[in-house]
């Protein structure tokens, strides 16, 4: 099959309620880069009450206010088994901040109530009074330097089943104690980094596309992409104060 007849379907979780600090940009970057790599791309927006699609190659979800997380909680639990099956199967996923927290076991908000997660990631989150806000840079074994922006009250702690995405160089990350940022399990990446993340970190976008393409078609032949704008964005973001 030629690359041009190959296609990838991106499932965008809860764009209505979970989409802050430009997180939607992650979907746009995946779409454009997958096209540059030669794939046709279909984006499916999934909001509460929608029918869960049958064929999904990449799952993306963004951050949200506590109230947004409350709103989607029941529906997320309804589709939790389908998401778990995709995760077990090696489907690549990127979940940011609010949905990162809810892919874990629970998020206890600042007012003390618990929003239960779907437990795909072996993490738990408890809000503290001080919000962790600002530009953040981390080092990751897989992706090198990752640059983003964080704004969360929840502090996340990883258990045995999850590995951190990276180590914080500047900023807070998962919590104000252990210098870790994000969590990975199978082909899932959870992170606090908004920004949006992927325009400034195309290596992560290409990794997600590679996992999806390899799983679906058995191989992935990357095209050379001109990343001058991404490089400039990284350079600029790196210079910004916390
Ligand atoms: N409401 C969550 C918190 O404050 C998530 C915030 C976010 O997605 N930016 O921790």
**Hetero compounds:** glutamine
Total DSSP E strands: 12
| Rg from alpha-carbon coordinates | 17 Å
Uncertain segments are: none
Major sheet summary line: 6 strands, mixed
Shape: globular
Biggest sheet strand order reads 2-1-3-4-12-11
Amino- and carboxy-terminal Cα gap: 48 Å
Number of helices: 6
Could you characterize what this model shows?
By secondary structure, the chain is an alpha/beta fold. The chain is built from six helices and twelve strands. It has helices spanning 24-36, 66-88, 97-103, 197-200, 202-217, 228-239, and strands at 7-13, 40-46, 58-61, 93-96, 106-108, 114-116, 123-140, 144-158, 166-170, 180-181, 183-185, 188-191. A six-stranded mixed β-sheet has the order 2-1-3-4-12-11, with helices on both faces. Strands 5, 6, 7, 8, 9 and 10 form a six-stranded mixed β-sheet that branches. α1 packs across α5. The mean pLDDT is 96. The site of glutamine has 13 residues, from α2, α3 and β8.
């Amino acid at each position: 099959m030629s690359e041009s007849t190959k296609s990838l379907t991106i499932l965008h979780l809860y764009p209505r309620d979970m989409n802050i600090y430009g997180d939607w940009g992650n979907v746009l970057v995946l779409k454009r880069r997958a096209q540059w790599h030669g794939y046709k791309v279909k984006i499916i927006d999934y909001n509460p009450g929608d029918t869960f699609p049958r064929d999904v190659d990449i799952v993306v979800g963004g951050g949200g206010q506590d109230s947004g997380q409350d709103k989607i909680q029941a529906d997320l639990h309804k589709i939790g088994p389908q998401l778990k099956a995709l995760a077990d199967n090696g489907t690549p996923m990127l979940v940011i901040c609010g949905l990162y927290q809810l892919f874990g076991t629970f998020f206890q908000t600042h007012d003390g109530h618990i929003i239960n997660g779907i437990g795909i990631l072996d993490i738990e989150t408890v809000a503290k009074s001080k919000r962790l806000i600002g530009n953040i840079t981390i080092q990751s074994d897989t992706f090198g330097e990752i640059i983003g922006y964080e704004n969360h009250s929840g502090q996340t702690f990883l258990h045995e089943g999850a590995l951190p995405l990276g180590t914080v160089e500047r900023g807070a990350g998962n919590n104000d104690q252990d210098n870790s940022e994000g969590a990975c399990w199978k082909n899932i990446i959870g992170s606090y980094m908004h920004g949006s993340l992927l325009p400034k970190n195309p290596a992560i976008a290409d990794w997600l596309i590679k996992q999806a393409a390899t799983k679906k078609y058995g191989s992935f032949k990357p095209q050379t992409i001109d990343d001058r704008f991404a490089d400039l964005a990284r350079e600029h973001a790196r210079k910004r104060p916390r």
